[in-house]
């Protein structure tokens, strides 16, 4: 039940899809298109304009001859959006996570990482020579014990996902920042599943939890809520960003972001800075799905996040139920080991601002039917 196959989409990304070899009008509940900007007409227009004006690509890394005015403008906009001093672009957030730890930390330092952090954080930490501590998921007692042990090192960095992508739960950033203050540590958050829609103005988990001035470093993606094309970034203090431009290997040794991609992300940020209406509309849709599914008898992990994991336990059950949901016109995906721990298979549903109430109700009805058929519901 763990073999993964890919479904082929024959239309744009959006709440309604056409799949190759049949299925039209498929309701899509598994993209990270949280704000529905992936196919937003203004985002597409901005990409076309950037493509025409600045070309297909730079055929160069940034420091040789790959920096255009739009790259600098986007970095400035990202920093302004997050209320940070500066930002640096990468081809992906995977690259941003791969590049930061090695550039920042030495063998004299320590990094303390939540055990359920994203694979790219884990890989980034593997690449650095700092002393490594892995604390139990969101367990502040364990983090404190590890911080005490790490006092012997020169510098301490606590690294956590802001919102965890497999469980839809949100890191206790207030408590993490308090501990970081007490034990003189820096805080790093990965905001891939928060940027653009968590917090009153969509700034992320640091805004949601009131610690924008306490979190030192943010890594996030342009490939999810912010237009969905591709790209990632680090934003934080200017000296840190200056250091990354000198030392971060995925930045130094990989091509610049293509202009069309820069155009998409830049327009997505403009839309979000003009109004918080899209971000707000998603919260109500998430609430509708979570409460109706819970009432139907399902266990939904996490809280108030548009990632709504329907917990099933068995890998094969998750795969078979997802397949049967597609037979009913609902595209969802089962997740099993090694993406999630053994015995914790689930179907991860993701809500988007562009789902209608009717779309959500259709999804809940299909889950209820399929859940009864396969014995996941009584
Ligand atoms: N961090 C988290 C928490 C993610 O979910 C992802 C994407 O799956 C990444 C990093 C990598 O982002 P990107 O797709 O920009 O490489």
TrEMBL record:
HAMAP family, per the entry: 2am3keto_CoA_ligase
Lineage runs: Eukaryota, Metazoa, Chordata, Craniata, Vertebrata
Claim: Lyase is one of the keywords in the record: no
Keyword annotations from UniProtKB, A to Z = Acyltransferase, Pyridoxal phosphate, Transferase, Transit peptide
| GO biological process entries | L-threonine catabolic process
Q: Which reaction does it catalyse?
A: glycine + acetyl-CoA = (2S)-2-amino-3-oxobutanoate + CoA
Q: What is this protein called?
A: 2-amino-3-ketobutyrate coenzyme A ligase, mitochondrial
Q: What is its EC number?
A: 2.3.1.29
Q: Which GO terms describe its cellular component?
A: cytosol; mitochondrial matrix
Q: Name all Aminotransferase class I/classII large domain ranges.
A: 25-367
Q: Which GO terms describe its molecular function?
A: glycine C-acetyltransferase activity; pyridoxal phosphate binding
Species this protein is from: Psophia crepitans (common trumpeter)
Report if keyword Transferase is assigned: yes
Give the encoding gene's name.
Gcat
Which metal ions or organic cofactors does this protein require, according to UniProt? pyridoxal 5'-phosphate
Q: What class of enzyme is it?
A: transferase
């Amino acid at each position: 039940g763990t073999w993964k196959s890919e479904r082929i989409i024959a239309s744009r990304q959006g709440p309604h899809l056409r799949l190759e070899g049949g299925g039209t009008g498929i309701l899509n509940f598994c993209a990270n298109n949280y704000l529905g900007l992936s196919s937003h007409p203004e985002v597409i227009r901005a990409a076309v304009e950037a493509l025409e004006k600045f070309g297909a690509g730079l055929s160069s890394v940034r420091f040789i001859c790959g920096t255009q005015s739009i790259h600098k403008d986007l970095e400035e906009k990202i920093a302004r959006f997050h209320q940070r001093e500066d930002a640096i672009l990468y081809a992906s957030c995977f690259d941003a996570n791969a590049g930061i730890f090695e550039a920042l930390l030495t063998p004299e330092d320590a990094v303390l990482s939540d055990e359920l952090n994203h694979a790219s954080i884990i890989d980034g930490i593997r690449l650095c020579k700092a002393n490594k501590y892995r604390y139990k998921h969101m367990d502040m007692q364990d983090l404190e014990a590890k911080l005490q042990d790490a006092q012997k090192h020169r510098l301490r960095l606590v690294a956590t996902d802001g919102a965890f992508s497999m469980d839809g739960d949100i890191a206790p950033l207030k408590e993490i920042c308090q501990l970081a203050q007490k034990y003189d540590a820096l805080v790093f958050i990965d905001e891939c599943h928060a940027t653009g829609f968590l917090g009153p103005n969509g700034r992320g988990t640091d805004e949601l939890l009131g610690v924008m001035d306490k979190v030192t470093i943010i890594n996030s993606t342009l490939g999810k809520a912010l237009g969905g094309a591709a790209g990632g970034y680090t934003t934080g203090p200017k000296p840190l960003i200056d250091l990354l431009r000198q030392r971060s290997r995925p930045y130094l040794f990989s091509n610049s972001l293509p202009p069309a991609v820069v155009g998409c992300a830049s327009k997505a940020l403009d839309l979000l800075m003009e109004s918080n209406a899209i971000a707000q509309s998603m919260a109500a849709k998430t609430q509708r799905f979570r409460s109706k599914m819970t009432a139907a008898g399902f266990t939904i992990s996490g809280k108030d996040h548009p990632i709504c994991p329907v917990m099933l336990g068995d890998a094969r059950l998750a795969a078979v139920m997802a397949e049967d949901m597609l037979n009913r016109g609902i595209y969802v995906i089962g997740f099993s080991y090694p993406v999630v721990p053994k015995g914790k298979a689930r179907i991860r549903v993701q809500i988007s601002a562009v789902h209608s109430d009717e779309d959500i109700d259709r999804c809940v009805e299909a889950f209820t039917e399929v859940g009864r058929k396969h014995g996941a519901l009584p």
